[in-house]
Amino acid sequence: MAACGSPTKGLLFEVQVGCTAHASGRTPSKKVSALDSNRVDQKTRLGLAEGGVLSSRSVMLPELAALLAVAPPAADTATLQRLAMEEDALHKPSAANRVKTFAFLRRLYGLSVQLPAYREFTRLCHLSPADTQVLAGTLAFAREPVLRACCDMVLAVPMGNPLRREDFEAWVREHAPGRYSQAMYVSFSHNLYASFFQLGFLSEAAGKARIRTRRDVRPVSVAYAAFLDWLTGLNGLSLLSGALSRTLELSKDEHLSLLSAAGQQGLMRVAHAGGVLQLDFSAWLQPGEIRLTVQ
User: How many other CB atoms are there within 10 angstroms of residue 120's CB atom?
Assistant: First the structure.
């Protein structure tokens, strides 16, 4: 275990483990560390914690979609692994490539129905396959902090404006200055560039750039993003600006309309009147699963 103040290296950022800066120079209390540890454990059980996997691959949405297309609803990890390894659901030429690809997909998306975030994702994908692209993006943002951070840069680019691979490299360099070789910075930027294309934020290539585009967001996708933000402890209208819901790029009126439509479809209970919004996702959780509380 790393000592307090020692950095743990992930994909792009160094994270200080088990310690918070104190002007007094005193060591943080064990109580605070225990609370932080318990929260991380709870996030992991909900399927909201992982990350650090985009150094070698994009989000690999085509491979994920191919696997889900042949998997039965609520397929467990062993079934998914068998489909990937023995039936080549991932369409990879070698056993070694299948192993690596499945391991990557499992780390990025969870691939376990014991995790509420993944279980509800796959349920909704089978319910509405047309939503798979947006649903997968929301789950990836929830589990990969680097992808989520880079999304801020992408969202700041107006619709119709170009984004180049070099723009992603510049972002990586800004957030991890002097940390990697030139080749690694280029590799990271290619993976991020490809990821945001696969997730629908960018168009097909137009010369040396891709164009910022608006995704087709439906009630199922809006409900799922709200669910993941709800798992973090948010309630009411604050869900509209949650870390995941805001990646849908909806106006307040659009957002509320789509949430209401999701409620009418029976996805969850929705009540909105007098400027008050209430969403009830309790039916999406199984006994013993508890959402986080806002810190």
Answer: 22
CA 8 – CA 6 distance, rounded (Å)? 7
Domain assignment of residue 8, yes or no: no
- With CA atoms as reference, report the closest residue to 269 among 282, 287, 258: 282
pLDDT recorded at residue 35:
63
Structural domains of the chain, count: 3
Please check whether residue 13 lies inside any domain of the structure. no
pLDDT in tens, 5-41: 333 344 454 433 333 333 334 444 444 466 678 888 9
**CA distances for 166 relative to 45, 184, 220, angstroms:** 37, 13, 34
Q: In angstroms, rounded to a whole number, what is the distance separating the alpha carbons of residues 158 and 127?
A: 32
Tell me, yes or no, whether 237 lies in a domain: yes
Residue stretches of the chain with pLDDT short of 50: 1-11, 13-32
8 A C-beta contact, residue 104 and residue 32: no
92 and 116 in a single domain? The answer is: yes
**Residue 279 structural domain:** 219-224+231-284
Task: Give the span between the Cα atoms of 36 and 69, in whole angstroms.
Answer: 38
Q: Which pLDDT score is estimated for 177? A: 92
Q: What is the pLDDT of residue 200?
A: 98
Query: How does pLDDT run across 158-191, given as a tens digit for each residue?
Result: 999 999 999 999 999 999 899 889 999 999 999 9
Separation between Cα atoms, residue 124 and residue 121, nearest integer Å: 5
